[in-house]
Each structure stands twice: as C-alpha cells, then as structure tokens.
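Data availability excerpt. The first of two example chains:
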Amino acid sequence: MSKFILASSLFAVLLIVAACGSKTSSVDTGKVIKSAPIGNLTVSLSSPSGQLKHGGDDFFVAFKDSSGKPVDVGAAALTFHMPQMASMPAMNDSATLTTTDTPGVYRAKANIETAGEWQTQVSYEGPAGKGQTSFSVTAQ
C-alpha cells in the first residue's frame, strides 16, 4: 500500500510540474543543503539558510550539468522517507515542486513530520532523459 501511495504521489507531482511549463531567467536558490549525482547530472537541495527544517518548509531543487549550468529535466518529483523505528511507523513526506524562472530549478514545499535523518528520493523525466537517486539529508 505504501508503494502505491508513493507511486500515486509521484505521478501526481509529475503531472503538475509538467503542466507548469518553463520560463527563462535566474533565481537565487540560497545555500546548498546537499547535492548528489543523478544520471549524468547533479541534483541539489538548497535554501536561504542552508538548512532543511521539519514542519512546513520551502526550499529549492536544482538539476545541473557538469559545468554547473541548470538543465531542464521536465517533470521532477521528491519524497522524504524515514523507515520504521521501534513503534514509530515509516513516514513518507512528498514535496510539491513548481517551476521557477530558471529551467531546471524548482521551488519546493514540504511538510517534514519530524527532525532527523531522512532518505531523499528524487526522480525526473523529460528533455534530459530519465533519472532517479536517493541520498540522506537531515531536517533540523
């Protein structure tokens, strides 16, 4: 059931992001929280403070090539996952991504349930091909 919910959430986010289209210009994404390779690109999470916060938080997700230039990846999705621990059930918190004036840079909004280490799952599909990755990140 958890995989179905995750897949449904990913599909819905992909549709929303794909429908938003892309624009031109640049946006200040703040300080990098964490970066990881994704296919032949790099994905970065960033915010003005350089931290990811639990509760309602706004941050940026950027896809860049090896020269650091943002790359339009089309539809993108991000989910935070924390596995079950003792009596606490597993948690999955999806981020809502919207396009910005810079193709390849997305404004993200998430309600991360609790502070601690989360497994971040990122995927994309579009003009840059298809890719997915996961990496850990700490919510303050």
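And the second chain:
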Amino acid sequence: MNYQDIIEQLYLSFNKRDIDAVLKHFHSNVAWPNGWEGGYVQGHDKVRDYWTRQWKEIDPVVTPVSITQVGDNQVKVEVKQVVQDRAGNLIADVMVIHLYTFEEALVIKMEILGL
C-alpha cells in the first residue's frame, strides 16, 4: 500500500490543529511519542489530551521534506520542525525523522528519530 497521501494529509491536518482529521488515520491503540515531555501516549483520548495541552504552551509546525516507504508497513518522513512559544519566540528550527508504522492502513506507532 502507498501511504504517501495519508502522511501528507496527517501533516496538513496537524498544522491546522484538526485533531479529528488526524485521528481518523490512527489505530485506536496508537502509540504516539510525547516529544514535548518525553515518553509515549497511547490511544486516541491520550493523543487528543497531549496535543491540546501542548498547543496551549507551544506552537509546533511540521513540514514533510521527503517521504519514503520502508517495507510493507513503515514510512520514514524527513520533517522540518519549527517550534515557537505562544508569544512567537523561536524555540527550535530543526530537521528530524518521523518513522510511522501502519497496521491495516492505520498508524499504530510513530517514532521520532534524529537525523
């Protein structure tokens, strides 16, 4: 399966802060990295809570630069990540790798890797 369209939609929806549009592509038991505080959150409700709390404090924008399918069920995405505080001050402007694992065409896990 080609996951490129799903990945592109995930980033567009995330940057628009449309949680429901993102979650429709997530497995109900998704493991999502808590890149802000550390660890992982599990499931739709925990992801929603994490993002809602995060967006009250910081304003991350993630833009895919390249999308590469790895095997049958993984996708590696090179991402430009720009994070500002709520006052607009730059916190980070970095490149990172996001590694998505799919199960039955839904994201079951995402990992944040260094470049």
